[in-house]
Amino acid sequence: MYQEPANDLTQEAGSTELSPPPSRAIFRSEALEHYIQNQEKVELPRLISLKFFRFLWIIALLLMVAGSIVAFWPLIEQLR
To answer: What is the full DSSP assignment across 18-54?
Structure first.
């Protein structure tokens, strides 16, 4: 990526910008940390309850086990 070299005017303009005085913060540090932590959280909407979600996973696992048994039934019969 190409960048143009900075000339004296842009360097001077950058150094003359005023920064806020470090004397006193507007918010308490605990409140600011709490705000930042809440901003980072990603919460998905609860469409179904956790118990029902677990129940669906158990049903899915049972179906996969049953499907595996049916798919490999000829191989299981040969092993007898």
So the answer is: ----SS--SS-HHHHHHHHHHHH-------S-HHHHH
